[in-house]
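Team,

Forwarding the record for the chain on the shared tracking sheet. I've put the sequence and predicted structure together so nobody has to dig through attachments.
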Amino acid sequence: MDSQLRTRLLWLFGLIFVFKIGTHIPTPGVDGQALSSFFNDRSQGTVFGLMNLFSGGALEQLSLFGLGIGPYISASIIMQLATIMFPSVERMQKEGEHGRRQITQITRYLTVGIALLQAFIIASQLEGQTTRDGAPIILQGGLAFRLTAMMLLSAGAVFVMWIGEQISEKGIGNGSSIIIFVGIASSLISGVNSLRYSVENEQITIAGALILTLLMVGVVAFIVYMEQGHRRVPIQYTKRMVGKKMYMGQDSHLPLKINSAGVIPPIFANTLILFPATALSFVSAEWAATARDSLTPSGYLFNILYVAFIVFFCFFYTAVTTNPSDLADNLRRFGGYIPGIRPGKATSEYLNTIITRLTFSGAIYLSAVCILPTIVISTFKVNFYFGGTTLLILVGVALDTMSQLQAHLLSQNYDGFLKNARLRGRKA
């Protein structure tokens, strides 16, 4: 292992260690045991439960890093959509390094605003809440507690954003994705312990546990296969003159992924459905409880809406991020064309047909994986959340990190090869 890679790995693990320390620093004025009991009873099937999962249980303790990387991810998605919806932001993005720095700065300011809003909502909703035993969660509420929670949680969110940027710059992989990966991986440990507890108490047989384990391995292999799957559209380039040099034509391909939207559709769909369930969880009326139960992951209405929203956001996000007309124009600009397809509008329509079919296949794949936890829980009678958005994120981040690690190793070997070649040339 070369020294540069060793340094990057040390940065990566050191920053992860700092993040884990911050998840255990509590916010003043909160009864940790009462809050944990409240989350176990009331957060399942709500936005708070999803945020708690992504933060690795930090929100359950209302720790300094309770908001996790969520505000920064939300701000990044908003800015990404803004580049499509607003021409001024799109021009800013095309201004090169200066434009990207401006967008990064706006994203940071937007992160602070979202963090302050989320912290205020959480602090306001927790005030006056009690556990089933009547124990208050907030020891001393009021304006002072709200301001303190807003300041600490927002500062924690900004610090987590900084950790993510440092991981991307000095470590290995995408920093934001790594932080989410660490949070989800921490939460999965409790799921494994829950499965072991079910086997020990004969709630599930050993044969059932083995079948469940094989199912896990099979699903992971299926996700890896689908995430790496893509359609290769053949491309040919004509001869072209650049300055006084003639470049010969060559054959290539345009890779179009089956799942080009990634985990964005499940996250958007889950959040959109869980918002009403979260609001209803603070209403004590009987009708609210009935409506809330129908919007839990075990309810039929939730799964029907979940699949419908996943399909919608797959097509919406792909349409926002992938423009067949731009692809066709870029091919024509660089002298490329698809064999048998005329350049221009015909190429755009051909690519649009392929992208639509791939997006539909990707939406079916995402829907199948995301409703897997409901099938597992109802079939094996275990309270183990396996599959869905969490598993997609874990596998996707692992694949992306391994890809960047391999690219780094290849670049080091290539640099070493060139260095040796230069040295030999000098001796000659």
